[in-house]
Amino acid sequence: MKEYEVVHEIFNQCSGNQMRDVFIEETEIADLEAYVTSRHQDKDFTFEREDLADGTVIYHVNTSGILQRYTFTEL
Known about the structure:
Strand content: over 45%
Structural class: mainly beta
Order of helices and strands: EEHEEE
Number of strands: 5
Radius of gyration: 13 Å
Number of domains: 1
Number of helices: 1
Mean pLDDT: 91
Low-confidence stretches: none
């Protein structure tokens, strides 16, 4: 398993509030896709993976119209 810094952002739908909820953790993860899927097991969601040149992996998640982003940076 590899150790990652995980930044999970939940974007606010309210037009008057441009802030987002941000959660940061360091954890060991064997499978990034399984990690994201496990966070949304009971919900209908879609996601798209983006791999950056520096090795960072970003998952863009849409859960019932709520946009979220998981950014994985290997430690």
